[in-house]
Every structure is written in structure tokens, then in C-alpha cells.
Amino acid sequence: MNASIPTSLTDGLDAIIEMDAPLAAQTWFGVGGNADMLVRPQSEAALKELLRRCHNENKTVRVLGSGANLLVLDEGVDGVVIKLDQPAFTQWTLHADGQKNTAHVPAGVDVLKLLNACVREGLDGLCQMAGIPASMGGATRMNAGGKYGCIGDAIHSVATMNHRGEVRVHPHSAIQFSYRHSALPQDLIVWTLLQLTPGDPVALREKMLDIYKFKKDSQPLAQHSAGCLFRNPVGHDGTRSSAGRLIDLAGLKGFTHGSAFVSAEHANFVCANKGGRANDVLELARIIQERVLQSQGVDIEMEVAVWGRSFQPKEKK
Ligand SMILES: Cc1cc2nc3c(=O)[nH]c(=O)nc-3n(C[C@H](O)[C@H](O)[C@H](O)COP(=O)(O)OP(=O)(O)OC[C@H]3O[C@@H](n4cnc5c(N)ncnc54)[C@H](O)[C@@H]3O)c2cc1C
User: pLDDT tens digit string along 227-238?
Assistant: First the structure.
């Protein structure tokens, strides 16, 4: 066992534990180093116990969803990475507790599988998520979405767990949902309750496929990326402009740095070659930021979460 991880962290824990666990295959970029420890709790009780032990042992905790908005650097990550992909966290309930048109969704649920199930069941409210890879925890944290709406539109309430293992439920009215952000505590999201509306399954399927087609036609969905790398910046008039357009105007469409490149299809998609370096992606991000600042006078910030042993993220604006 890695000397920096005490056995008191894992002894008797109802969880799948992997030391020195490769994370590349767990992210959509498909690059990056290992986690000192990857833990998959088998129950909410085990998750609670793990968070308490990590806090007592002063270990950094990171939560991995579907890895669709995440760059893990080549140096890997210290502490404990938690993945909620065991059955206790991946099974949703429709019309939960007799509440009509709701979905109780644990954080590890694949949002696209849920979307398909809702459409089949004739439940509307999630079609805006077509073509957006995410776990429910990651989608809730990022308030994922786009032109057709965001996940926050369908959220009734969210349950979070803090480092003492205490669960708090936040109603929609107490959460400020904004562009790619939900104002929740920096705790682990355990489940999200969705409020949906009845709809015709055939019409919903058409709506979902139309939205997916729009995304597929404008974004390189088959490449290794994390979607849009940069946030759309806010201008002097308070409206957001397209970071992709600024990158394009800076002449960077198709630009390559080592094993990373700017998509020729959508300039805000930075992609990694199979077997490439995560650090090439981060270096390319820095080059893009510099060139856009020089040529367009706009400071763009990364939307994608970056994990690394020595990496300190900049404060979000
Ligand atoms: C091809 C492609 C297209 C995309 N298109 C879009 C798009 O149109 N719109 C959009 O908004 N996004 C888009 N994205 C980005 C991504 O799909 C979203 O940001 C999504 O919400 C990420 O969810 P995830 O589960 O993969 O989170 P991860 O990438 O695993 O994690 C993202 C962040 O959420 C945190 N997190 C994850 N789970 C939890 C939890 N249970 N509790 C607390 N924090 C948690 C992580 O710690 C991390 O900080 C795209 C990505 C790809 C690869």
C-alpha cells in the first residue's frame, strides 16, 4: 500500500478500493496519470464513513463523475478519489415516494441513460441534456446544459453530504443556478430530485433526437475532449460572447501543440490524441488564453476542472 495512505482509511470499509489507479480511461480526454487511491463505496453508509475518515486523516477528497469535464494531469492526484458507480448510486426511481412526474436520481446515474428512460416513460424536462455526457452529480454541480436549457431547470432539490457525513437537502429555491454553475456547498452531491412534466413519448423522442443532431452537427463529439474548454466570457454589456469565436478570431482553429489540438470543427473544443499527454492539453490551454488576450483583449477562463498533485486552480471570475 502507498505509504501516504494509512490503512485506517480503508479497513473494514464496504467499498471497492484500488491503489495507484489509472484515471485516463475514466475521463473523456483519455489522458492523464493515476490516483493514489480510487474508492467506490457500496452504500451511502460506507460513503459517510469514508468521508469522515478522510477528514480525520486530513486527506484531500475529489469526486469523479463521468469524467466529461475533467483534465487529470500526467502527475496524477494525491489523496482519495471517490467514484459513485456502484448500484447504490446508479439506480433511479421514477415517481419517487408517490410524487407524480418526479425522478429520484443518485449522483452516479448516467444522465443520458436516464434521459432515454424518461422519454420512453413520457416524462419531459431532460431533453436539453441530449448529447451531453454526464453523471447526475457532475451535471448538477456544473448546471450542465446549453442553448436548449440546463439541468437546473428540472431540479426540484439536491442532497449534499459534508466531510462529517451529514446530509443536507437544498430546495431549488435555495440554489442559485447560473451559467455552468450551481451555488451549492463544495460538498459531495448524493442525489438530485427532478421535477418533470408529462409528455408524449413519440414527440419527446423527436425533440431529443433534434437536439442531439444539432450538437452532433456542430461539435466534434467523437474526439477525446471535455466539451467546451473555456467559459464564454461576459462583455461590458453583461452579455456572454462565444469563447469559440474568440479562439477562431485569434487564428487558432486546428492549431496543434504536442499531442493536443484545437478542433477544426469547433474552436472551443480542445482535443487530445490517444496516448497523448494531459500536460499538452494544459499547455495548449495557456497558449490559447495568451493569444486570445493579445489579439482580442479578452481574458478567457477554463470551464474544465483540472486535477493534479501540485496544480492550484485560479479563482473563478
Ligand atoms: C463531447 C462533450 C460534449 C459536451 N457538451 C456539453 C454541453 O453541451 N453543455 C455542458 O454543460 N457540458 C458539456 N460537456 C461537459 C460535461 O458533459 C458536463 O460538464 C457534465 O456535467 C460533466 O459531468 P461529469 O459527471 O462527467 O463530471 P466530471 O467531469 O466527472 O466532474 C466535473 C466536476 O464535477 C464534480 N463532481 C462530479 N460528481 C460530483 C458529485 N457527485 N458531487 C460533487 N461534485 C461532483 C467533479 O469533482 C468535478 O469538479 C461536454 C463534454 C463532452 C466530453
Answer: 999 999 998 888
